[in-house]
Amino acid sequence: MNDMSKIMYIVVPCFNEEEVLLDTNSKLITKIKELIDNKLISEVSRVLYVDDGSRDSTWDIICELHEKHEYVTGLKLSRNKGHQNALMAGLMEAKNHADMVVSMDADLQDDIDVLERFIQEYENGADIVYGVRNSRKKDSFFKRNTAIAFYKLMRMMGVELVYNHADYRLMSKRALHELEGYKEVNLFLRGIIPLIGFKTATVEYERGERLAGETKYPLRKMLQFAIEGITSCSVRPIRLIAVTGMLIALMSVVMLIHTIVGYFQGGTIDGWASMVVIMCFLGGFQIFSIGIVGEYVGKIYLEAKGRPRYAIESKKIK
Ligand code: UDP
Ligand code: MG
């Protein structure tokens, strides 16, 4: 027994991943064994699959794998709660058993051969190691461009993100304990993890294609994710509204003077077209602004209720 080496848990959220899970598992197990053999991690290191309320046989597969391999553990959420919540559930469970926890997607798009470098950065004192992809060559045209737009929008809105980093990262036990203190139910991990602090490091890797199955992030979920990211990490949209409102108010003073002068000159009926244009613009803009404020009010409502982020239905941890 090499009691110097640290315990690693690899947390993998899974939503309807029956097509890819066996393949992913054999690769992960091979990797864990290799890391143990090289004395980089302790032999009680584990993979932790979190079934996010899948409607296919994902959980059955996890249970079978748990019976067959000592390295496999599992967690089943009571229903589909979304990637971020599933990940959080896994991280919070794993931190009770591990010294360092790596999160990655079930489709193994993230290169598991950089784990050695993750561990090395951890050994050098980093509490958070970000996996950063070095290019987007293998993405579809659509995914690449929506991703670039996403980062631009986030920066404009004042959300600090690590560029080209998704949820492939290593976190120490200590960092995870700090993460636990972030109680928000509108969870956007990429936005809050940089707020934790401590020493961080980045490791570059090449991101591949999905091993099998389809993306679980259709456009609808991506948009939802972006809105979540902005509204849970920044109030800049509200501030922009306030500034725009002030500018429009100033403009309307100019309009007012113009109108009064026009009235005394006796040519008021001329202005009908511009009146309609301004009315439409203001009406639309006001409704839009109320919508943005409403988005935040809705968030406050959800946070105020403080409902649990997830419920664990069963656990397969030896
Ligand atoms: N996922 C999840 N719950 C969901 C949607 C996705 O746990 O509601 C998981 C999914 O199983 C995968 C990860 O989140 O492990 C990332 O999803 P995917 O690879 O489909 O996203 P993409 O790489 O296409 O952005
Ligand atoms: Mg993927």
Offer a few descriptive terms.
318 residues; alpha/beta; 8-stranded mixed sheet; 8 strands; elongated; binds uridine-5'-diphosphate; binds magnesium ion
pLDDT < 50 runs, ≥5 residues: none
Radius of gyration: 25 Å
Strand order of the largest sheet: 7-5-6-4-1-2-3-8
**pLDDT average, as an integer?**
87
List the ligand species: uridine-5'-diphosphate, magnesium ion
What percent of the residues sit in helical stretches (DSSP H or I)?
A: 40-55%
Largest sheet: 8 strands, mixed
What is the molecular shape? elongated
Count of DSSP-assigned helices? 10
Structural class per helix/strand content?
Answer: alpha/beta
Could you tell me the strand content as a percent range? 5-15%
The succession of helices and strands, N to C, reads EHEHEHEHEHEHHEHHHE
Count every beta strand, where a strand is a DSSP E run of 2 or more residues.
8
Distance separating the two termini = 19 Å
Account of the protein in words:
The model has no long low-confidence stretch (mean pLDDT 87). It is elongated, with a radius of gyration of 25 Å. It is 50% helix and 14% strand. With 318 residues, it is of the alpha/beta class. The site of magnesium ion has 4 residues, from loops.
Task: Annotate the secondary structure layout.
Elements: E1 8-14, H1 21-37, E2 46-51, H2 58-68, E3 72-77, H3 83-94, E4 100-103, H4 115-123, E5 128-133, H5 141-156, E6 169-172, H6 173-180, H7 189-196, E7 200-205, H8 219-233, H9 236-265, H10 272-305, E8 312-316
Parallel strand pairs: 1-2, 1-4, 2-3, 5-7
Antiparallel strand pairs: 3-8, 4-6, 5-6
Bound molecules: uridine-5'-diphosphate (UDP) and magnesium ion (MG).
Uridine-5'-diphosphate binds at residues 13-15, 17, 52, 80, 82-83, 86, 105-107, 109, 215-217.
